[in-house]
Amino acid sequence: MEFSPSTMEKLAELFRPPEPDVFQGEDFTPTEYEITSVRGKIPATERDPKDPKTIEEYEELEDRAAEDLCRIGAGLDDRKTPQYTMNYQQSVSAEDVFLQIGPKTPSSASCENIVIRIKMPGDKKENVDLNVDRTTVTVNSSQYTLNLPLPHGIDPDLSKANWDTAEDMLVLTLKLDREFDFVNF
Q1: Angle 60-64-69 (CA atoms, 0-180°, nearest 5)?
Q2: Structural domains in the chain plus CATH codes
Q3: What share of the chain is helix, strand, coil (3-state, %, to 5)?
Q4: φ, ψ for residue 61, nearest 5 deg
Q5: DSSP characters over 101-140
Q6: Cβ contacts of 183 within 8 Å, gap of 6 or more
Q7: How far apart are CA 88 and CA 114, in angstroms?
Q8: So what's the pLDDT on residue 73?
Q9: Which of 104, 141, 111, 137 is nearest to 126 (CA)?
Q10: Among 60, 100, 116, 148, which residue has the fewest nearby CB atoms (within 10 Å)?
């Protein structure tokens, strides 16, 4: 059996040890750069006694901070933020409800108004200062303050405000200002 030079070279490649998958430090050519570490050389800073020491304390601190940020009007002054509800209102007719041939859907996209009920116990209508613009409602009184961003633009000129004396509640009916399309009509 005779071997040609090309088959001998291929046979020699089969017996050559494989190259390593991971290079070691001695496999690289040396460079002029030096690698150093500063671990342990940076001085430790003084810890604040309020800093959390465990993960649970840290999470509790973060939860409290998030709750404080979520309160609308938080940090303005000593006045309280009143409780309020925000609901969508839609005008429906018999053809919408019974015949179901109208273009309205039960979603909020078919609603014409936003109704906001702000409970202000202990306050009077005369003490309430109300400011409504396209995107926000601001209510100030001697006891309460509320700066409420609205989820949709409204038309302040077509909106209404009423005071419910039995409940000490301000009721705002805000007319939505939406572009008309196949969903909003």
Answers
A1: 145
A2: 84-176 (2.60.40.790)
A3: 25, 25, 50
A4: -65, -40
A5: -SS--SSGGG--EEEEEEE-TT--GGG-EEEE-SSEEEEE
A6: 105, 109, 110
A7: 5
A8: 54
A9: 141
A10: 100
Task: Write the DSSP symbol of residue 82.
Answer: P
Answer whether 139's CB lies under 8 Å from 163's CB: no
Displacement of CA 74 from its chain's centroid (Å)? 17
Per-residue pLDDT of the chain (185 residues; tens, 9 = 90+): 677 888 888 888 888 777 666 666 666 666 777 767 777 666 666 667 777 888 888 888 888 877 766 665 555 567 888 999 999 888 777 766 666 666 666 666 778 889 999 999 988 889 899 999 999 999 999 889 998 998 888 998 999 999 999 999 999 999 988 776 555 55
Q: Please list, in sequence order, all residues whose beta carbon lies within 8 angstroms of the beta carbon of residue 72, skipping any fewer than 6 positions away.
A: 81, 146, 147, 148
